[in-house]
Design goal:
Elements: H1 2-28, H2 33-41, H3 44-47, E1 50-54, H4 57-66, E2 69-71, E3 81-83, H5 85-91, E4 93-94, E5 102-121, E6 129-139, H6 145-150, E7 157-166, E8 169-176
Antiparallel strand pairs: 1-5, 2-3, 4-5, 5-6, 6-7, 7-8
């Protein structure tokens, strides 16, 4: 009786070990929203800081109304906004060649994932490639109060990330816009 009890303990221990092993292996094949978010936020694209922030028409109008810049009526080729001294103090200036869209801030900003909105299998990948849709935004913490207030309603940007399953787990392959293109200003 003692021998059979010992054998039962060994068999049960073996089964528990096998279940843990198999469960552990299959868990690594599962790409969750939380896992994707952590991987993206630890990627070089999220760790690298930038000072280029794209403005939309509403941002341009708010900046004009606040006296940070004004439209230069003498510009010939394109719509151009001249930055005022107060605008220069708070926002730096415009990125060269794109004066009505992208500010070149005197501060370094980092990105953060606002929300992972979905994970789908890439067509024909047998579950080994995933497309993760998400929204991201700049982290404006540590900025002067006027800058934080200006960007308080800055909308999150929609983007996608491609992940691929390797023998050691999921890897982040690249970021693409929802239209399938990459943007040098990543916005």
């Amino acid at each position: 009786m003692k021998q059979s009890r010992g054998l039962i303990v060994v068999v049960i221990s073996f089964l528990i070990s096998m279940i843990s092993f198999v469960g552990g292996c299959s868990a690594s094949n599962n790409l969750t929203r939380d896992k994707a978010k952590k991987m993206m936020e630890s990627s070089k694209e999220f760790q690298t800081q930038s000072n280029a922030v794209r403005l939309d028409d509403a941002d341009i109008k708010r900046g004009e109304a606040a006296g940070y810049w004004h439209e230069d009526k003498e510009a010939w080729v394109m719509r151009y906004f001249a930055i005022t001294p107060e605008g220069k103090r708070l926002f730096g200036g415009w990125v060269s060649g794109r004066p009505d869209q992208i500010l070149n801030l005197p501060y370094k900003l980092s990105r953060h994932v606002v929300e992972v909105t979905g994970i789908t299998d890439e067509e024909g990948s047998n579950g080994h490639e995933k497309l993760v849709t998400f929204t991201w935004n700049w982290n404006f913490d540590g900025m002067p109060p006027e800058v934080k207030q200006f960007f308080q309603n800055y909308p999150p940007r929609k983007y996608c990330a491609e992940f691929r399953l390797y023998d050691d787990g999921w890897r982040l392959e690249k970021y693409v816009s929802e239209e399938g293109t990459t943007d040098p200003y990543w916005q």
